[in-house]
Amino acid sequence: MSRPGARHGIERPSRTASTPDLGWSRRLRDGTLVRIRPIGKQDAELELEFLNRLSPEMRSLRFLGLVREPGPDVARGLTDLDPRRAAGFIAVVSDAGRDQQIGAAHFFVSPKGDSCDCSVTVSDEWQKRGVGSSLMRVLIEAARERGIRHLRAFAPAHSDGSHHLAARLGFKRRLDLHDPAVEAYHLELA
Fold it and tell me: Would you identify the CATH topology of the domain 6-188?
């Protein structure tokens, strides 16, 4: 099996028994080095800072309008994941020697275990630079390695960025029969 993201120009640093899993590295078109790594409960504060830096529009896209002001409980829910039921990755850059989260991707596995709902969010100032694509490629590979066969994502019908990213990654767009303001995206994994 390949490592998540390995087929898409995302390099995973070498690891030894004495070093922790560092995740993946990706150099953006402008030369910025972005690290993508699994999210953990130790990242709750980093996640909360990230969510609170999002514009109201991006926050609405992330939570489909259901969460306006994310608090510590929301951040904990997105970082303290049951590995049997979910996976999450964050994209970080170094800012004055401190990690700054610029994106996140998650999936939550269905009860049957063969499908999952997934999402990706990128900070406003990092949009259209390849961060979302990199995160989703890692997430797709992780789902494939788990034997998940179907990925599903939802976005507001007016979200052009989501439409373009989903199309580039091979997702098929379908109307959400329960909510005409939301579009559903499906990706079949082989």
Answer: Aminopeptidase (3.40.630)
